[in-house]
Q: What sequence folds into this?
C-alpha cells in the first residue's frame, strides 16, 4: 500500500493506492497543519482501505505542513503532487489551477504529468483560498455557501483591492452601501478569478485547463474562472484530493524505482 | 460669444468621456490620434506631425490583463495604461510616446513593445542635469530622435516651420492656462474642484487650438462675474487630483482648489518659454527652467517653499497632498514637504489615492475631519 | 620564507575594515566625506582622494545584521512610505539615528549620485542633500532604450563629467590631477578584470564558487574598485578558486555536491541571507551566476573618458528588456544553468516591472525552468520562509524532471 498525505493550512487529505495502483482509500478532514486532523484523516483512510499501518510500503507527504510531518518517507511540493494527481485522473490538461489556502498556483504540465512551468501568487494577493474564507466570514456565511450565493447575483459589484486586508474593508463598505450579499460574493469570486487569470497569462497558460484543490468545489468560482480565462475550466474528480492522490502516486513510483 | 456655462459643460463633458471625445476629434479633424504618456511629453512634435496628441493618464478600468506584465505594487495610472493597451481601448492610437522619467515608466516603455506590438512606442529620456551646459543640446537631439520616429510612423516629413507653428499653439495654450488657474481661483463656486479638474483635463482629448479658444472665452466671461468666496480654500499637490469622486467630497465639505501643483495641471503649463531660440530649444528650456517638479532633478527641492508661496498668495487654509499610491518619486517628496509645512504651521492633508478605488468612505472621513480643523 | 600569504577572505575582511576606518578618520581630520551610489564614477573620487561610504553597501550590512527594522521604522515615522526602496529607508533612518551595531559611518559632506541604477537613488540623494543641507553631485545617465548608448548621451555625460569635476574642486578646494585620474582608471579596470575573472570560475562544472560567497566579495567591487589592494584581493580570490576548480572541488565542503546550477536574478535578501542560502544548499542548488555582479565589470580603454561614461551608462539595469534577455540567455549557456531564480524584490521596481516579460522570453529561448519568490533586500517583512522553500523545492523537482528526461547525469 502506498500513502499520499496532503497537509494544507486548513484541511488534511489522505489517499491510498494498492499494488495495482488503484485508489482504495480517500479521506478529508477540515483541520490543517498543526492540529490532530492528520491522525483523524489517516485513521479514516486506513479503515476505508481496510489496511493497517504495517501494510504501508511508502508514504509521501505534501502541502503546507509537509516540512514538519515526520511520518513520511519523502516530502514533495504540492506543485508536483497536483500535477501528478491530475495525470492520474487521466486528464489531458495542459494547465492546472490550484487555489490553496495560502498559495494559488498555475501549473503547466506535459502529457506525463510532469511540471514544465508554474506560477504562484504574489504575497498578500487576493487570489487565495484564505481570501475566500475571509469573505465568507465578512458575509457571515459558510465557505460552502459562497457558490450558491454568488449564483443568485444580479448586479456587478467590483472588488478591486489586490490585498486581502484592503479587500475586506472594501467589502464591508460595499455592504454598508447596501449591496446585496449575493452581489458581493460574486464580486469576491471575480476578484479571485482576475488574480488567477493574471498568473495564468504570466506563464502563458494553455487550454485545456483543469482545477484542483478544495476551491474547485465552488461551482460559481469555476464559472468565473472560465469567464476570465475565456476557456472552459473543468474540476478534476476529487479536486480536493488531487494533491494527496499525486503524493500517493509518487509513493508508488518511488517505492518501485528503489526496488529496481 | 457663447454662454460660459455651456462652454464649461462642453469641456467637462469632453474630459468625462475621453474615448468618445477622441473619436469625435478624429472624425472632426480627419487627423489620427497619437498617445502621450505622462510626463512632459513633447506634444508639440506630435501635433506638428499632424496627429491629435491624446493624453494617457490611466483611468478607471478593471485590471486584468496588465497583471501579465506588472506586479500588484505598480502605480495604477501606468498599470491602467497597459491594461487599456491590452484590452483594445487604445486601438485607434497610431503610436505612443513614453517618457522614461521614473523607474516604472522606464520599465513600461519596454513592456509596451511586447504587450502592444501593434501600437509602436517612442521612448524619450530627459536630461536630469537640466542646468548644465550641454543639457539643452542633448534634449534637442532627443527631440529630433522623437521627430524621426514620428516621421517613420506617419510616413510624413515634419518641417521646422510645422514645429514652430505647433509650438506657438502650445505656448498660447500654456499662457491661457496660467491665466485660467488664476481667474478660476476667484470663482471657486462656479469652478468647483471637479469642474476645475475636468476643464484642465479636457485639453488632453481635444485639438489644442480649439481648446485654447474655448478656455479664453471662459476666462473672459468669468471676469464679467462678481468674484466668489469659498468656505475653505486649499492648494493641491501631486500627480493628478483623481479619482474625481474625491473632488466631489471636497466640494461637499466646502473646500475649493485655488491653486495647484499637479503634474496633470500646473506643472504642465506654469513655466513660460524662453524668449530666444528655436522651438525645440524653447521646449528644452521649459524642462530646464521648471521648478519644484517631482520628476525633474532638483537638489534644492523647491516644491515645499513654492507650495508655501502659493498658500500665502491665495490666502489658502491648507494644502492637500494627493499621493498616487506606488508613485515613488512623489512618495520621496512627501516627508520633505511634510516637514516644511509643519515648520511653517500650514495644515497638510495627505490623501493616498489610486484610480481604481471603489470605496470612498475612509477618504470622506479624512477630508471631513480636515475641513473641521481648518 | 617570510609571512604566510593571506587568504582572500582575510584580505576582504581587512580591506572592508580599512574602508570604513579611513572614512571615519577622514571625518575626524575634517576632510570631506562622500556618500555615494553603488555604481557611481568612483574614479573621480578616488583620484581626488575623497573618502567615500556607500549607503547601499552599508544598508546591506545592517540588513545582514538583522537590525534594519530600527532604521526603517525611523524613516517611516518621518513620512517615508513602506513602498519605497528599503535601502533608502534604512539609510535615511541612519542619517537620523547615526549609529548601527553593524557598522558606524560618518555623515556625508556631500552626496555623489549616478542614476544608472535607478531613478530612486536620485530621489533618495536629493532628500539627503536637502535634509542634511549638503551639496549633491550627480551624473545622470539617460535610460538606454535603443541597442547602444547614443552619441548624444555620451556627449551630454562627458559635459556632466566635467561639471562634476568642477563641483568637486569647489567642494574640496583641490584641483583634479588628470595623471592621477588616469592611474585610478587603470587600477579600476584591472580590479574589474580580476573581479570578472574570479566569478567566472563558476563556469566550471561543478563550480568551485558558491554564489553566496560572491555576494560577500561584491562588497569590495562596490566600495573599492579604484584601489590597488582590491586588484590584489580579486587576483588572490581568483587564484584560490582556480586552484579549487583544478582540484575538481565544488562550491562547498567535500561530499556536499553541486546538483543544480542556477542564476539568481536581483539583489540578495540580506535580512534572510542564511535561510535563502541554506535552503538552496539543502537541495544541492548552487547559485553559479547572477545578473548583478557583472554591473561592476566596468571596462574602458586607457584614459578613455568617453568609454568611461559609456561603461557606466550601459550596464543591464539601465538597458532594454531585449538586452537583459540576450544577456541572461548567454549566461544560461555559458554557465550551463539548470534553472533561474528570480527575486521579486519589493524594493526594486526597476527590476520587478520588467521581470515577468524577461522570465517568459528567457524561458522561451532557453527552455530553462524558473521560479520567482517575494522578498526584499533589507525589509524583513516581505520574505516568507515557507513560501521560499516551497518554490525552491518545486523548482528542484522540475529541474530533476528535466534532467531525467534528458537521460540524467
A:
Amino acid at each position: 500500500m502506498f500513502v499520499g498525505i496532503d497537509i494544507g493550512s486548513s484541511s488534511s487529505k489522505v489517499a491510498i493506492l494498492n499494488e495495482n495502483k488503484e485508489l482504495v482509500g480517500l479521506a478529508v478532514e477540515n483541520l490543517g497543519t498543526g492540529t490532530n486532523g492528520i491522525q483523524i484523516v489517516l485513521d479514516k483512510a486506513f479503515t476505508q482501505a481496510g489496511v493497517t499501518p504495517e501494510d504501508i510500503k511508502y508514504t509521501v507527504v505534501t502541502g503546507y505542513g509537509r516540512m514538519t510531518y515526520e511520518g513520511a518517507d519523502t516530502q514533495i511540493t504540492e506543485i508536483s503532487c497536483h500535477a501528478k494527481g491530475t495525470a492520474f485522473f487521466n486528464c489531458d490538461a495542459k494547465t492546472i489551477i490550484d487555489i490553496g489556502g495560502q498559495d494559488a498556483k498555475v501549473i503547466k504540465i506535459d502529457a506525463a504529468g510532469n511540471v514544465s512551468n508554474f506560477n504562484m501568487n504574489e504575497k498578500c494577493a487576493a487570489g487565495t483560498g484564505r481570501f475566500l474564507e475571509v469573505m465568507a466570514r465578512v458575509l457571515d456565511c459558510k465557505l460552502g455557501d459562497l457558490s450558491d450565493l454568488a449564483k443568485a447575483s444580479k448586479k456587478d459589484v467590483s472588488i478591486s483591492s489586490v490585498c486581502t486586508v484592503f479587500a475586506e474593508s472594501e467589502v464591508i463598505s460595499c455592504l454598508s452601501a447596501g449591496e446585496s450579499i449575493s452581489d458581493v460574493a460574486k464580486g469576491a469570486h471575480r476578484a479571485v478569478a482576475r488574480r488567477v487569470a493574471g498568473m495564468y497569462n504570466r506563464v502563458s497558460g494553455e487550454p485545456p485547463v483543469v482545477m484542483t484543490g478544495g476551491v474547485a468545489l465552488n461551482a460559481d468560482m469555476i464559472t468565473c474562472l472560465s469567464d476570465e480565462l475565456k476557456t472552459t475550466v473543468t474540476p478534476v474528480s476529487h479536486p480536493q484530493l488531487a494533491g494527496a492522490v499525486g503524493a500517493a502516486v509518487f509513493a508508488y513510483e518511488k517505492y518501485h524505482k528503489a526496488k529496481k | 460669444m457663447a454662454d460660459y456655462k455651456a462652454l464649461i459643460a462642453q469641456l467637462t463633458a469632453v474630459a468625462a468621456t475621453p474615448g468618445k471625445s477622441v473619436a469625435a476629434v478624429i472624425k472632426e479633424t480627419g487627423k489620427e490620434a497619437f498617445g502621450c504618456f505622462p510626463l512632459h511629453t513633447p506634444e508639440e512634435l506630435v501635433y506638428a506631425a499632424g496627429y491629435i496628441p491624446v493624453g494617457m493618464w490611466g483611468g478607471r478600468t478593471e485590471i486584468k490583463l496588465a497583471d501579465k506584465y506588472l506586479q500588484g505594487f505598480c502605480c495604477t495610472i501606468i498599470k491602467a495604461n497597459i491594461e487599456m493597451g491590452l484590452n483594445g481601448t487604445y486601438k485607434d492610437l497610431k503610436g505612443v510616446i513614453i517618457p522614461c522619467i521614473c523607474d516604472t515608466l522606464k520599465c513600461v516603455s519596454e513592456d509596451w513593445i511586447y504587450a502592444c506590438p501593434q501600437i509602436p512606442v517612442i521612448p524619450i529620456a530627459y536630461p536630469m542635469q537640466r542646468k548644465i551646459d550641454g543639457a539643452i543640446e542633448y534634449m534637442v537631439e532627443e527631440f529630433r530622435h522623437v521627430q524621426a520616429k514620428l516621421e517613420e510612423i506617419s510616413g510624413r516629413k515634419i518641417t521646422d516651420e510645422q514645429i514652430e507653428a505647433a509650438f506657438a499653439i502650445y505656448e498660447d495654450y500654456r499662457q491661457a492656462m496660467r491665466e485660467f488657474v488664476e481667474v478660476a481661483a476667484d470663482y471657486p463656486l462656479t469652478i468647483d474642484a471637479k469642474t476645475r479638474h475636468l476643464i484642465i483635463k479636457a485639453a488632453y482629448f481635444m485639438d489644442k487650438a480649439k481648446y485654447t479658444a474655448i478656455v479664453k472665452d471662459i476666462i473672459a466671461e468669468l471676469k464679467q462675474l462678481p468674484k466668489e468666496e469659498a468656505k475653505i480654500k486649499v492648494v493641491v499637490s501631486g500627480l493628478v487630483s483623481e479619482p474625481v469622486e474625491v473632488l466631489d467630497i471636497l466640494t461637499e465639505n466646502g473646500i475649493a482648489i485655488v491653486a495647484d501643483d499637479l503634474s496633470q495641471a500646473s506643472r504642465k503649463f506654469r513655466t513660460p518659454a524662453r524668449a530666444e531660440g528655436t522651438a525645440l530649444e524653447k521646449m528644452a528650456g521649459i524642462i530646464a527652467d521648471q521648478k519644484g517638479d517631482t520628476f525633474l532633478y532638483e537638489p534644492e527641492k523647491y516644491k515645499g517653499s513654492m507650495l508655501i508661496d502659493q498658500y500665502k498668495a491665495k490666502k489658502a487654509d491648507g494644502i492637500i497632498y494627493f499621493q498616487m499610491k506606488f508613485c515613488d518619486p512623489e512618495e520621496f517628496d512627501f516627508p520633505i514637504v511634510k516637514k516644511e509645512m509643519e515648520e511653517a504651521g500650514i495644515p497638510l492633508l495627505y490623501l493616498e489615492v489610486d484610480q481604481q478605488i471603489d470605496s470612498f468612505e475612509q477618504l470622506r472621513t479624512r477630508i471631513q475631519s480636515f475641513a473641521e480643523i481648518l | 620564507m617570510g609571512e604566510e600569504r593571506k587568504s582572500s577572505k582575510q584580505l576582504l575582511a581587512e580591506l572592508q575594515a580599512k574602508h570604513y576606518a579611513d572614512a571615519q578618520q577622514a571625518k575626524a581630520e575634517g576632510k570631506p566625506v562622500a556618500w555615494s551610489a553603488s555604481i557611481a564614477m568612483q574614479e573621480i573620487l578616488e583620484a581626488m582622494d575623497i573618502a567615500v561610504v556607500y549607503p547601499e553597501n552599508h544598508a546591506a550590512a545592517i540588513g545582514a545584521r538583522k537590525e534594519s527594522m530600527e532604521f526603517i521604522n525611523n524613516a517611516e515615522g518621518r513620512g517615508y512610505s513602506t513602498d519605497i526602496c528599503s535601502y533608502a529607508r534604512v539609510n535615511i533612518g541612519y542619517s537620523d539615528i547615526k549609529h548601527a551595531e553593524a557598522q558606524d559611518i560618518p555623515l556625508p559632506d556631500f552626496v555623489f549620485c549616478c542614476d544608472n541604477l535607478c531613478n530612486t537613488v536620485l530621489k533618495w540623494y536629493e532628500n539627503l542633500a536637502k535634509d542634511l543641507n549638503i551639496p549633491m553631485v550627480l551624473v545622470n545617465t539617460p535610460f538606454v532604450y535603443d541597442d547602444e548608448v547614443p552619441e548624444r548621451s555620451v556627449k551630454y555625460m562627458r559635459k556632466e563629467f566635467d561639471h562634476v569635476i568642477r563641483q568637486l574642486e569647489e567642494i574640496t578646494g583641490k584641483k583634479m590631477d588628470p595623471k592621477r585620474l588616469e592611474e585610478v582608471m587603470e587600477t579600476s579596470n584591472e580590479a574589474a578584470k580580476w573581479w570578472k575573472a574570479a566569478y567566472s570560475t563558476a563556469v566550471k562544472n561543478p563550480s568551485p564558487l558558491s554564489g553566496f560567497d560572491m555576494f560577500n566579495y561584491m562588497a569590495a567591487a562596490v566600495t573599492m574598485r579604484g584601489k590597488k589592494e582590491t586588484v590584489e584581493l580579486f587576483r588572490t580570490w581568483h587564484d584560490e578558486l582556480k586552484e579549487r576548480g583544478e582540484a575538481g572541488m565544488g562550491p562547498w565542503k567535500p561530499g556536499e555536491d553541486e546538483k543544480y546550477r542556477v542564476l539568481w536574478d536581483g539583489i540578495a535578501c540580506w535580512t534572510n541571507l542564511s535561510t535563502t542560502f541554506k535552503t538552496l544548499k539543502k537541495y544541492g542548488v548552487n547559485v553559479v551566476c547572477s545578473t548583478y555582479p557583472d554591473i561592476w565589470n566596468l571596462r574602458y580603454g586607457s584614459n578613455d573618458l568617453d568609454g568611461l561614461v559609456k561603461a557606466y551608462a550601459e550596464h543591464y539595469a539601465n538597458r532594454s528588456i531585449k538586452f537583459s534577455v540576450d544577456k541572461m540567455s548567454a549566461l544560461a549557456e555559458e554557465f550551463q544553468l539548470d534553472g533561474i531564480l528570480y527575486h521579486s524584490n519589493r524594493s526594486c521596481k526597476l527590476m520587478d516591472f520588467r521581470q515577468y516579460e524577461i522570465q517568459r522570453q528567457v524561458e522561451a529561448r532557453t527552455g530553462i525552468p524558473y521560479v520567482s519568490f517575494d522578498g526584499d533586500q533589507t525589509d524583513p517583512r516581505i520574505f516568507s520562509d515557507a513560501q521560499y522553500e516551497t518554490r525552491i523545492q518545486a523548482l528542484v523537482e522540475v529541474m530533476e524532471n528535466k534532467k531525467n528526461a534528458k537521460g540524467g547525469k
In short: Chain B has three domains: 1-25+159-227, 31-156, 230-374. The first strand of chain B starts at residue 32 and ends at 36. The beta strands of chain B are 32-36, 51-55, 93-99, 121-124, 232-238, 255-262, 318-324, 348-353. The radius of gyration of chain B is 20 Å.
